[in-house]
Amino acid sequence: DDFGYQGQSDMYHLYRPRYPLDMFHEINQRVPTEKSKRSIAVDIACGTGLLTTSLAKPLNVGCKTLDDFGMGFKKVIGIDTSQTQLEKAKEHSQCSNIEYQWQNIDERMEFENDSVDLVTIGQGLHWFNIPKLL
Questions:
Q1: How far apart are CA 83 and CA 80, in angstroms?
Q2: What is the pTM of this model?
Q3: Which run of H or E residues covers position 22?
Q4: Exposed, middle or buried, 56 (CB in 10 Å: 0-12/13-18/19+)?
C-alpha cells in the first residue's frame, strides 16, 4: 500500500489539488444527460474520493462553485489499490450512491458490456501499465 504510512492519506486528502470546475463542465458536455442515463460511473484510482464525490452528487451543472457541482450519476464505483486511501474516502463520503472497492486494476475489471456510462482516472494514470489497462 503506497499510502500506508500513518497520516499520508490525511495529508493527501487535505492538500491534493481539487479538480477545476471547467473539467467537470467538459465531462458534462461529453456525457450529456440527453444521451446518457448516467446510471454508473467508475472512478479508477479514486484515492480519497475527491473526483468520485462530484460524480455522485445530485445533478447540478449550472452552479458557480465546485462545492455545489454534481454530475448526477445514480451509482459511482470508486476503485483503488490502496486500502488506506479507500478507508479515507469512505470516512469523507457523504453520498450513499458511492461504492468503494479494492481492485487490482492491472488484472482486469469485471463489468458487463455497455453497463458503464463513464470511466475516469483523475490523476492516477501514471500508476498503470497503460496498454494493459486499455
A1: 7
A2: 0.87
A3: helix 21-30
A4: buried
